[in-house]
Every structure is written in C-alpha cells, then in structure tokens.
Specification:
4 strands, mainly alpha, single chain, two-stranded antiparallel sheet, two-stranded antiparallel ribbon, about 400 residues, disordered N terminus, P1 Nuclease
Amino acid sequence: MFSVNARRFATAALAAVLALAPARAAFAWGDDIHEMVVRLAVELLPEPLRRELRREMKSLLEGATAPDRRADSRGKCFDPAEAPRHYIDIEMTSADFLAAWKQKLASSGSPEGEALQALKGAFVKEYFSRRTVPLAAAEARALFDALPADKAGFVKLVGESEAGWIGTGPYTVRERYDELVLALAFASEAPGGSGVRARPSRDQWAEAARLAGELSHYAADMHMPLHGTVNYKGQLTGNLIIATKDPDDETRHVHVRYEVMTCRAYLAEIERAVRPRLVPARALPRGTTPERLAIRAARASYPLDAEILLVDKLILPGDSPPRRGDGYVRFMQENLGEATARQVAFAAQAAADLMLSASLEAEGLRGPGAAAAAGSGRAARPATERGDGIELKQ
C-alpha cells in the first residue's frame, strides 16, 4: 500500500516550533464518541486482525482517548505540541491570509513568546472581522484541495511557526498510520532464528492496539466539522461564549455544547443510527493516502459548520447559558442528530479502512489474497460515495 519512509522525520523538526504555537485546547469529539468510533471500527475488520485487537480492548480505548489527555494542560502527560495535531484551520491557509500575516509580523518587529501569541490572536480577530466565516462551499473546497500531499509540503506552504498555529490534523493521521504499520509488523508472526515461527508477545499487540486507537482518534477529529475552521467555538459569528473559571463547563461555547454535552446525552441513539450504515473494512483505494483521506474528510465536513453554528444561535439567542433540562440538547439533537450520526459513521468507517490498510502494508499483502480480503463485494454493496474514499450503506 503506502511505504514508510523519510516523510516521518518531518515531525521531529516541527516539535519545538509547535510548542510555541498560541494556546488552544484540542476540543474533540468527547471520550464517549471516540470510544464508540474505535469499538465500531474494530468490528468491521476481518479475522484474525479483529480478534487480536479485540483482545487488547483496554489498550484500544486508552489510545482512543490519550491524545486529548496529552492536550490538557492540567494533566500529568501534557504535551504543548499536541493540540495542533487535532485540527486544521483551513481559512488560514489562503494566500491572502498568509501574505497579510507576514506583512503584519514584519511591521510588528517580529515579536516572540507571549507577545507573538497575543499578536496572532489579535490579527485573526481583526482579519476575519472583515470576512465571512464559514467560507462559501466552493472557496473552502478549493483551499482543502490545495493542501500539499505531505507535511513537509504543508510546512513549506505556510511556514514552520504557522504550521503549529494553523494545525496539522490531516498529517497527524499519516504519522499515526505509519507508526501502526511498524507496530503491526512487529506484532505479526515472524520467523525465529531457528526457522521456527515465533509468536509475538501480547505486549506487542497491546502497543499496536494503542496506536490503532490513536489513529482512530485523529481520523475521527477530521470528521468533526469544527476541527476544520478558525471559528471553532463560534467566536467570529457571535455564538454565545460563557466566561467561566471551570474548564470542564460543557456550556462554555458551541464546540463543547455540541460535541460533548449534546452527543453524550444521545449516545445510545447515535450508535443505533450509526451501526446500520457501516460496511466491512476495505483497503484504501490506490492513490488515496491516509493524509489525503483525512483532508477529504475535513473538506466534506466543513459545510456542516454553518448548520451547527446556526442551530446553536437559534436556541441561544440571548446571553443565558443552557442548563440541563432546558431543551438545548434536545433541540440540537432534533436538528443535527442525522448529521451527527453520519459524521460518526464516516469516522468509524475511515478508522476501520485505515487499520486494515496498515495491516496489509505491514504484512506486505499485495496479491490476489490481499485484494480479496480487503475489498470483496465492493461493487455489489449498496453504498453512497462521499468523495473521500469512504463508503457507507445507503
């Protein structure tokens, strides 16, 4: 499928730069949705991969939620470079934005540290106050389609410092995919020194499962509409933002009101709507890399931003925060439930297809047997094509 090569080393060069990016929490589908996605994804895999990963369910679930723990500045495993791995603010990749930012930076004496973070925040607010966000569908699509095929190209396009500001979500999917390929290669049976096949340890499968969980997490984030926009909490569209000292307050802005508070209230309903849409995992089509799949997923998800922001404003037209039982989550579910189920289904399907592709690459399966295991019955299966290489039942 896709060879593991020097592209992985671009990550190390960015580590220090990403740590200097303006602080932004990695709001993501809540733990409940991430755990649902990886559970459903594993069920779609063929044997023996499904059996081996299900035996390491604890590691799978830990991996599916670990990235958000690393992004939490209050936690023991906090990594300041983690947050940008969860999103990409597509509006900030435009040539006009990047040129205006470079001009602003030069005229400001190239500040550093906290002064640079403050300048970035003020610049974004001022720049987008004169522009419409979310972007029109055609404009957003063009920006997603213009994204480079790999992380090195992305850094070259936007700049090293800017990469950690704008976000590198799609390219993180590639990084975890490559790591999973290597982990599965070690976890698979390998010839021993005496010519006898040696069985891998459960520790090796546990590590592979953890990485599969992380891959599922980052892939799911690219299917969360608000992970592809600079207006990720409605701050540029007048959506209610509540000043609170409680970082766990699920009412504080639309991002968490939707993906955590609403989704958690309707978990069972979401899963019931998702399951019938899923099909057995298939390898990614030739020419579709993990990062390209992630870019297409974010592109297809972007139009839902406007719906989420509008529904939130309709139910919260004033300055009062939603409360349990006041109808907010019910209104959000009634208006967005179908879209939510569709996004979660696409996320689970993408995670499954990525896991299977990684397994096939790890085993070096490129012959008829691999093709049959990966895609038998593809043409006969009723599906709807969304244009990102992922298909669901109609």
